[in-house]
Amino acid sequence: MNESRGDGTLTILLYAQDSKGMGHVTRNLTIARHLLAAYPNAVAFIATESPIVDDHLLPERCDYIKLPRRLIPSGVRETHEEAVAGKDHFRDVRSNMLREAALGLAPDLVLVDHEPLGYRGEFRDGLLALKERYPETKFVFGLRDIMDDAGKIRSKWREKGVYDALKNLYDGIAVYGSRSLYDVGNAYGIPSPIQSKLHYCGFVVREPPQADPAAVRFHYGFPQMGPLVVATVGSGVDGYPVLEATEGAVNRIRAKYPDLRAVLVTGPFMPADKQALLQERATAAIRIVQRADNFQLMACADAIVSMGGYNSVYEALVVGRPLVIVPRCTHKVEQRIRAETLAAHDLARWIHPESLSSRRLAEDLEWALSRDREAHARLVREVIPSFDGAANLTAYVGERLGWAPMGGHHGGEPSPMVEPT
Amino acid sequence: MSETLGGTSTESLGPNPFGTNGWPSDARSSVGSPNSSKSPDVRTVLLYAQDSKGMGHVARTLTIARHLLAAYPNTVAYIATESPITSEFSLPKRCDYVKLPTHWLSWADHEDDTQHLHDDRAKLLCEIALRLAPDLVVVDHEPVGHKGEFRAGLFALKAQRPSTKFVFGLRDIMDDVGRIRAQWQELGVFEALETVYDGIAVFGERSVYDIADACGLPPSIRSKLHYCGYIVREPPRVAGAEVRQEYGISEDGPLVVATVGGGSDGYPVLSATLDALDRLQAAHPSLNAILVTGPLMAADQQAALRVRATPRRRIVSRADNFRLVGAADAAVSMGGYNSVCEALFSGKPLVIVPRVRRKVEQQIRAEIMTANGLARWVHPKDLDGTNLAEALEWALQRNQDVHARRVREVIPSFDGASHLTAYLARWLENGHDRLSSPKELMPVEQAA
Prior knowledge:
The structure holds two protein chains of two kinds. Chain A has two domains: 10-204 and 387-412, Glycogen Phosphorylase B (Rossmann fold); 213-383, Glycogen Phosphorylase B (Rossmann fold). Helices cover 41% and strands 15% of the residues of chain A. Chain A has 16 helices and 13 strands. Chain A has helices at 23-38, 80-105, 124-133, 150-160, 162-169, 184-187, 192-195, 213-219, 240-253, 272-280, 294-299, 310-318, 334-344, 358-370, 373-383, 389-401, and strands spanning 10-16, 42-48, 62-66, 109-113, 138-144, 172-176, 198-200, 228-232, 261-265, 286-289, 303-306, 323-325, 348-350. A seven-stranded parallel β-sheet of chain A has the order 3-2-1-4-5-6-7, sandwiched between helices. Chain A has a six-stranded parallel β-sheet with strand order 10-9-8-11-12-13, with helices on both faces. In chain A, α1 crosses α16, α2 runs parallel beside α3 (124-133) and α9 crosses α14 (358-370). Mean pLDDT of chain A is 89; it is low at 1-5 and 407-421. Chain B is an alpha/beta fold. Chain B has two domains: 36-231 and 415-447, Rossmann fold, CATH 3.40.50.2000; 240-410, Glycogen Phosphorylase B (Rossmann fold). Chain B contains 19 helices and 13 strands. Chain B has a seven-stranded parallel β-sheet, with helices on both faces. A six-stranded parallel β-sheet of chain B has the order 10-9-8-11-12-13, sandwiched between helices. Chain B starts with 42 loop residues before the first strand and ends with a helix. In chain B, 48% of the residues are buried. Chain A binds chain B through residues 4-5, 7, 9, 43, 45, 51-55, 58, 61, 63-69, 71-76, 78, 82, 85-86, 88-89, 92-93, 96-97, 99-101, 103-105, 125, and chain B through 28, 30-32, 34, 36-39, 41-42, 73-78, 84-87, 91, 94-104, 107, 109-110, 113, 116-117, 120-121, 123-124, 127-128, 131-132.
């Protein structure tokens, strides 16, 4: 217990860096929910750049600290040097804020997601200062399985001193994945003394929603029979080509599957003109919606199309549905590796965005629709035994910290929480 | 300003803002100069605002930010707040926010803890202010922050960066003036107004409420006062017929709109409104009403109201209250600044049931508007269907045009944000071209 609180309160600080999308924040909220359910005397703070706009997502006893984003007026043209100086300045702003927050909160546990020293190393000072002032603080690094090209990660980690931090700062490394699917120790060249700190927790997904396929079909005006395709593209910023191709693909295979229905979710951030283009092509059989509980829709689907983000992919897998992945292939290859890995296990098919066409997508959708649902679900369980990442993490933290779970929820079972519908 | 923070001695920051609590003597040295690394073309505005309950302060601050950013294209704005900025609000472009930990204070049981945590938050704010190195700081409502938490940060910033300008934005009525004066004395607000602030923007009318007299401001501070007028957010387009259609309300008969802000304490007002409507039924058989509970009203209270809904009485949980009031013939609301200003801006006769529990702010506002013939008010302890029906009867009897004219006589403008933007030009322009006059960017006239 740290000196700042003598009242038996456990303080958890979660750092979730998320420059685009909400994936990291969503995962950290799931983790916070599990930890807080297991430890009724705990409070949690999530430090993040993302605004948590939906109050309902925050569990009780959980608050967040929002870091500022660097803003540049569109009229301002920066030279490369100015841009670097500006970014450095901003890292400094955030770094100091994180440091003050960490020292002020004096957490008992710090859980750092994805970037062991924070974005551009912004949390390094804070972590070290915290360790120095409160040596009893526990530090856990939460590692999403696939991050990017492993060689690139290794050289980045070497350059930034991440291996030192893993060795000297962190008490544990929780892997939100499965060793059989992706061995992070090998991939990221974690030396054997540090490998003993690795703990595979399994994938972290949100609490699965109550799925009522009949109600969902009714909601979208679909008949109760006939296969259903659900396509999601995260927040939607870059998802238009995927949904455009999906719409084409569904129409192509309708001759073969006359009862085929589809729900395409644009996400709130797809540009309005693109949303309008899709809306024009909506029919009684192909619904286009801006927002939905994607997880719930997936649970009612027979086949799923999504991009390659961690949450989308593992939500599709946890409900055991065949999946077609169109990974984002940007400067990072994370999503492509995820797609390839799952395809190699026959759990998905994938299409490179450069070869994306409705014809290709139709082919893969046919594969997905032809899969035997139960056999596919069995295969998912064989390859990925657990999606209980958050529960396992909670148990792991209990062991590591000697915190006895005090909640009435054994095994980290979350208490009922309000999920957006 | 070329000295780095790490190299700045405690002395050069003036009195150590944190006593002996370890700052800034242990500030690290690896810090680049905050100013030299900022693009010289970019102006940074830091706004401080928070809501203890409801969302009025943050909403108003966002309106201000929107105006400033529209007028000054080379400006970026950061809002420091402990309030979550939820999906109810949209952030303008070039605007982001920094959220302080909210429960940091409230979770502490003991006074020592509270003090300790309070200091920590003060440090956090100080860090943010020093590192962002803003050109302009606009502080809403609490001149040295909530319980003085921004005081050290303001003084430190002033010492480190003398070119930064500080403006305190003051809602007209805050509370009983005696209490405000005592609080300000205790928190050192007068000193801050004297030495830190370059200007004090009042979001009200002097003729309606003279803040200098009320707060007993000395002449040296009075000279910094600038009345900007009331601030309302950009008014939505209002088409009465459209609103009625949307809510399935008949086109004949007057419409009463009742709102209670976030709703957590609004149940008695809406319940009494329904009682009042029952009483008015005989005299106004075609009277319509929309009651907005607000998202924070307890679910069972919302349910209790909903069972009393009829085709002419709609009960909804959320709505754009400003738009509804624009479509109304008479309004019922509590006494918050935004609710009252929005009803007045729309020129609608208003019945106010002020919140009176902790502060008398809303009661004073209600009294003043009533004294000017713009509203009637009912004290919560006298709140019942009969009293509210009487006040509503007055509102429904008012001639709308006459009433709207009366509002303009008392309150000539609701362009507070435009006037503030123009007022800040002396500090923000400084060789930087303004896009155009802020008024051109304001949609206020369109809907008026």
